[in-house]
Backbone:
């Protein structure tokens, strides 16, 4: 019995697929549900600021007069609550995680919306 | 009689990533006493309840612990629902049960791996964690997170698992069960493993009760006490008996956890068969009224107690968690005297300490 298990394990280890992935070469596959990071479709946003008020981590800042939506990626805990409370369905959860950063100033992503002109996006992120 | 020496164990120790500190009083190689100290990772999460409204607080409470995050969220929601008198839909109860049992499976497999690592069985440790990965993948697929699920809400759950996915989960879990069966044989039958665990750190039936041990530590000493028997969530409709071992040593506690993995898998199969269709959440109106509520749940590590006090506003007055590790530190201090210094890591692990839970 013991030898059987050992033999099977050895065979599996020799000829089977490795349990780990060669990370930088093989990228991780995400599920459709995976909560990676929060994104905002600024064209739908009406800057009501509900997401900012309900955020448990205080990561989102919204300014109506400036038409600005700002998220601090390092504060955000990706709990998805802002997505659930957004009345305009502007917010969504991307499957990909925020990439690591070496520069602290890049942690903040700011989006500006403009009324008549086409949308200008200013993304300060290395993602 | 040798001279007494004091050896500090932790807060940084290879066997335990968490900051548990014990001052071990030794006579030669024998431990004669231990003085614990905790408080290295206190974050003040309970106090936050006064500043975050009761819906947002779920996400904070989930972050009390990384392993039983779901059950913390569930316990908080259950307490607030009890305070507000909300009855959640049946399907939500079953979904909570399934996620809670999956949490127990992954927590116990993680613990088995750590235990193997504690007595130097590296390959067994890696095999355990390889199997655990499949359970984490199920979490990622169904909730979106691998460790923190953010899927519980006051009044139900946020996400549904459709019936096809549930069936696929069962197939994956059958594979997991087969692999755990192979791995558990090592924990149960292996000669060297038994040498390290049998007769080490015996906690008798009476001591376990007197010192207020909880969870597998208590059941390993022969006390059939399991909070799931209270019938919260869907446990009232599922068929199971608390798992009990009589010896009270490390081996008995390992055996309880090994058998609980299979029990949890069985509970998931039962829940998948019985899960009704319908709503997954009820609408929550108003704020928690003035009043108090206490609920008790069974975490992988044992009984956890939640207390909530409302005042009619959207902020709770007080929220308190009594975590299982806190209850199990006293039994640990009972187990330590008389053991060898080399057995201390195993004894510290055998209560499955989660210090970040304990300190919040």
Residues:
């Amino acid at each position: 019995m013991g030898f059987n298990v050992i033999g099977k394990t050895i065979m599996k280890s020799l000829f089977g697929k490795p349990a780990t992935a060669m990370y930088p070469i093989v990228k991780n596959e995400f599920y459709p549900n995976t909560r990676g990071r929060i994104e905002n479709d600024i064209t739908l946003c009406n800057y009501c600021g509900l997401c900012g008020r309900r955020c448990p981590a205080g990561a989102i800042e919204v300014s109506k007069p400036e038409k600005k939506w700002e998220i601090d990626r390092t504060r955000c805990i990706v709990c998805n609550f802002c997505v659930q409370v957004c009345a305009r369905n502007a917010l969504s959860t991307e499957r990909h995680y925020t990439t690591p950063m070496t520069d602290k100033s890049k942690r903040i992503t700011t989006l500006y919306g403009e009324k008549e002109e086409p949308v200008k996006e200013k993304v300060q992120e290395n993602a | 009689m040798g001279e007494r020496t004091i050896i500090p164990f932790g807060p940084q120790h290879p066997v335990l990533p968490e900051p548990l500190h014990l001052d071990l009083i030794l006579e030669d190689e024998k431990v004669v006493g231990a003085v614990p100290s905790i408080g290295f990772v206190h974050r003040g999460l309970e106090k936050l309840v006064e500043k975050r409204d009761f819906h947002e607080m779920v996400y904070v409470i989930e972050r009390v612990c990384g392993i039983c995050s779901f059950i913390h969220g569930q316990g908080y929601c259950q307490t607030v629902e009890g305070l507000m008198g909300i009855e959640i839909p049946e399907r939500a109860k079953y979904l909570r049960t399934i996620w809670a049992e999956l949490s127990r499976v992954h927590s116990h497999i993680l613990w088995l791996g750590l235990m193997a690592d504690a007595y130097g069985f590296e390959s067994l440790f890696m095999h355990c964690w390889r199997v655990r990965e499949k359970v984490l993948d199920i979490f990622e697929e169904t909730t979106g997170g691998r460790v923190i699920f953010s899927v519980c809400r006051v009044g139900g759950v946020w996400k549904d698992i459709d019936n096809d996915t549930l069936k696929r989960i069962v197939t994956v879990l059958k594979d997991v069960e087969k692999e755990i069966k192979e791995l558990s044989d090592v924990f149960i039958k292996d000669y060297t493993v038994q040498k390290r665990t049998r007769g080490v750190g015996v906690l008798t039936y009476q001591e376990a009760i007197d010192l207020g041990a909880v969870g597998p530590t208590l059941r390993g000493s022969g006390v059939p006490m399991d909070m799931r028997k209270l019938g919260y969530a869907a446990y009232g409709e599922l068929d199971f008996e608390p798992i009990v071992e009589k010896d009270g040593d490390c081996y008995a506690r390992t055996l309880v956890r090994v058998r609980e993995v299979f029990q949890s898998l069985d509970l998931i199969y039962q829940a998948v068969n019985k899960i009704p269709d319908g709503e997954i959440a009820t609408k929550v109106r108003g704020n928690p009224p003035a009043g108090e509520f206490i609920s008790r749940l069974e975490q992988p590590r044992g009984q956890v107690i939640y207390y909530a006090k409302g005042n009619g506003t959207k902020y709770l007055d007080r929220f308190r968690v009594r975590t299982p590790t806190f209850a199990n530190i006293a039994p640990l201090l009972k187990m330590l005297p008389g053991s060898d210094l080399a057995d201390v890591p195993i004894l510290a692990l055998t209560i499955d300490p989660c210090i970040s839970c304990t300190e919040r």
Remarks:
- The interface with chain A takes residues 52-53, 55-57, 59-60, 62-63, 130, 133, 140-145, 148, 150, 158-159, 182, 185 of chain B (CB under 8 Å).
- The first strand of chain B starts at residue 4 and ends at 9.
